[in-house]
């Protein structure tokens, strides 16, 4: 059997008195596209951000691409733990809802920044790679444009190219289209489908049911900080998915 590329065991997180994640368990195999759905406040984004420790859980174990991180009981990683966190992050990329591009850098400079500063790739090679990736997301002609001159959809496609530049094993998408109007949303979803078709392991928090139906291998449905349903996408959207799921689908 394949070893899961992402495995979460007993992941919990509280914000004050509010338990946002409650002993969450999840496993994702290499090449799977898993869409995480659920109502607002269900813990979807907190789970996603916990997977590369952008949000530190209170307890649990993460295993991502062979890197195992156990959350310390006192909340503070020792030197060895910090090293494991750094190694885990090198295996992943995150695409944010708000793009998070550097406004003083061109599209190309945003894409290659990690290659040059983190991976120490020679600038000429990084530029060549960055141009290839911008072409892949349909933005070859925008290489020298600054974010202020790009539409929301174009900014998000630059952000996807930036993530791909780091050659991750897994990409996390956190509501990547929620800030976009329908036409720009389709641009971004088209690029995400293309990435999914390459066999990239993807975990996607979204309300885009059409993308989930067409591109996901599995759907994870969360509510009140727990995984309520985890099943193939065809089953999730089928007639026998259960009354709670049908209620959610009717609403959205």
From TrEMBL:
Record keyword Membrane present: yes
Residue intervals of the ABC transporter domain: 6-249
Cellular localization per UniProt: Cell inner membrane
Keywords of the record: ATP-binding, Cell inner membrane, Cell membrane, Membrane, Nucleotide-binding, Transport
Bilayer-spanning residue ranges: none
Keyword Transport: yes
Major location (coarse): membrane
PROSITE patterns: ABC_TRANSPORTER_1, ABC_TRANSPORTER_2
GO MF assignments: ATP binding
Bilayer topology annotation: Peripheral membrane protein
Record-stated family: Belongs to the ABC transporter superfamily.
Protein name per UniProt: Amino acid ABC transporter ATP-binding protein
Organism listed in the record: Pseudomonas typographi
């Amino acid at each position: 059997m394949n070893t899961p590329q992402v495995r979460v065991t007993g992941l919990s997180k509280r914000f004050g008195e509010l338990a946002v994640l409650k002993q969450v368990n999840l496993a994702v195999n290499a090449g799977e596209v898993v869409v995480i759905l659920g109502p607002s406040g269900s813990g979807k984004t907190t789970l996603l951000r916990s997977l590369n420790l952008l949000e530190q859980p209170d307890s649990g174990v993460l295993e991502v691409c062979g890197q195992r991180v156990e959350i310390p009981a006192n909340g503070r990683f020792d030197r060895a733990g910090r090293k494991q966190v750094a190694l885990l992050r090198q295996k992943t990329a995150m695409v944010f809802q708000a793009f998070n591009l550097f406004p003083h850098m061109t599209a190309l400079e945003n894409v290659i920044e990690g290659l040059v500063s983190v991976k120490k790739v020679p600038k000429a090679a990084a530029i060549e790679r960055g141009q290839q990736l911008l072409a892949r997301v349909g933005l070859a002609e925008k290489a020298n444009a600054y974010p202020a001159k790009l539409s929301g959809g174009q900014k998000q496609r630059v952000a996807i190219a930036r993530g791909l530049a780091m050659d991750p094993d897994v990409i996390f998408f956190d509501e990547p289209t929620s800030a976009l109007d329908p036409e720009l949303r389709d641009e971004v979803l088209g690029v995400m489908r293309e990435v999914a078709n390459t066999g990239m392991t993807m975990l996607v928090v979204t309300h885009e049911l059409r993308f989930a139906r067409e591109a996901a291998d599995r759907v994870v449905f969360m509510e009140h900080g727990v995984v309520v349903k985890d099943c193939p996408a065809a089953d999730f959207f089928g007639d026998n998915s259960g009354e709670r799921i049908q209620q959610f689908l009717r609403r959205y």
